[in-house]
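>> received
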Amino acid sequence: MTSQSLPVIRPDQTPIADVRDYYFGPLTPTLAAMLPESDKRRDEIRQELQTAGYYSPHALTNLSAIRYALMTSLLVLGGVALVVSPRAWEPIALGLLVIGPIFGWSLPRLHVRGKAARRKAEIERGMPDLLDMLNMCVGQGLTVPDALERILPDLNAIYPALAQELRIVKEQAALGDLHQALKNFDQRIDLPEVHSFTSLLMQTDRMGTSVSQSLASYSDSMRESLKQRADEKGNRAAFRLLFPTVFCLMPAVYLFLLGPAILGFADFFRKGGRDSLDQGSRVIERINTERAADTAQRPPTL
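>> returned
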């Protein structure tokens, strides 16, 4: 017989899950069901919510309910505006009726994505400091869970997102084992530094090697990697700013170079320059006419 692993049970699937976190109360599951999503899309949104720090059991249900409620509200608002607005405002009301539900569907998830990106950047900045502090504590004889508990108050003031993740790791390690807690941390935060950090601790715990030496060497390599990545982003930003800078400076340069000429032409035409040009054109035309008449009256030569 082949043994199969048990399926993963999420907090919202347990019968004792707390429902006090529902955003719209008992109406929340009904509103969320009105916005169907595929299993793959739900897993992606659930991962984004965890990365953004939304760890309530029904975070996904609340987000779906908020998106549907916002879509419906903007749709109703656009319909009412289309009915009561005067004829001149009907195109704007129609645009609200069409674009409003799209914004209601996309804005909540964009907010979650933005918060997840900011949180990941904060965790990425705090990983080298975490390694140094963890190395000092482990070097003094503390275990990894005890070291995490010791450095949590110091990290919470500077990197609250990283402190929250480490607090979850410490609590899960107390309930189960450190290996599974680190694995869960690796699945929640999709960062190369987090993947390397959890792999390092799990490997040292499995192989029985020195955690302090591994952390010291990995801290230096992580700082070097972050420095190289920052240099790469800086070079990329300089290239991206080249074209906006050129397009923003070109109107000012044209205005600076052509401005005096334009003012001179305007002053010339304002003081009667147009009449002078017309008069000169008439004089030239009269001279040409007289020359043509003289040529016609002159007898032909044999």
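>> The chain has two domains: 13-119, 120-233.
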